[in-house]
Specification:
Layout: H1 2-18, E1 21-25, E2 31-34, E3 46-49, E4 55-59, H2 65-98, H3 102-141, H4 153-198, H5 208-211
Antiparallel strand pairs: 1-2, 1-3, 3-4
Helix pairs in contact: 3-4
């Protein structure tokens, strides 16, 4: 740091008297040339050349290790923030291309939910079949009501199998209902962001599809 202060005090005349030329490439890749140490390259080496262009010496970075670490950490944070903003802008452009208006967004929401509803309906039909099957099994078991131990093994297995299948269907149905809630939450979040991107006048009433999320 003393070198900067000394040359700053002597001014251009003092630097020219020495015939020294400072050159460096900063962190952005830009090359600098000056008759004194270059502030933009204080964190890296600077070549000191004579009037003939020969390198006389190399001026080392002037930061301490702690200072360099702090600068690098700040630079990384800035780069990460720039990357985050760029990615956010990219996603926003993709959203606008995919959903130019709310009608397009509502239409896709309805299509996705329709697929989930079809699966849920199939599970519910399977549950109804299992309930009917269980009723038949229980009717047969009534013959052994006085002594259940006399019920044939195949009938007991049939009852156990019915119970197990019903539990499987119940868990699967719960999963599909949670998935439906997750999809609605995703579309609601997208819609809130899209209304900002579409601009004034884009906001409208809440989609009727979203309002049916809990059904």
């Amino acid at each position: 740091m003393c070198l900067f202060a000394t040359l700053g005090a002597t001014g251009p005349a003092g630097a020219q008297a020495t015939g020294e030329i400072y050159t460096c490439v900063d962190r952005t890749g830009k090359r600098h040339t000056s008759d004194r140490p270059i502030a933009a390259c204080i964190d890296r080496e600077q070549e000191v050349r004579g009037s003939t262009g020969t390198v006389r010496k190399v001026l080392p970075p002037s930061y301490t290790r702690e200072e360099r670490a702090a600068i690098e950490a700040r630079q990384r944070a800035e780069e990460e923030e720039k990357a985050r903003i760029a990615e956010e802008r990219r996603r926003e452009r993709a959203l606008l291309l995919r959903y130019p208006n709310q009608a397009a967004h509502d239409r896709e929401r309805a299509e996705v939910l329709s697929q989930i509803d079809d699966v849920i309906a199939a599970v519910q039909r399977r549950e109804d079949n299992l309930k009917a099957q269980r009723k038949e099994i229980e009717t047969e078991l009534e013959f052994y009501q006085s002594d259940p131990s006399k019920a044939p093994a195949w009938l007991k297995r049939k009852l156990d199998d019915n119970t197990a299948q019903f539990e499987v269907q119940k868990r699967f149905l719960d999963t599909q209902l949670r998935e439906k809630q997750r999809i609605n939450a995703r579309f609601d979040e997208e819609l809130a962001r899209l209304r900002q991107l579409w601009g004034p006048g884009a906001a409208g009433p809440v989609s009727p599809v979203s309002g049916a999320a809990g059904r």
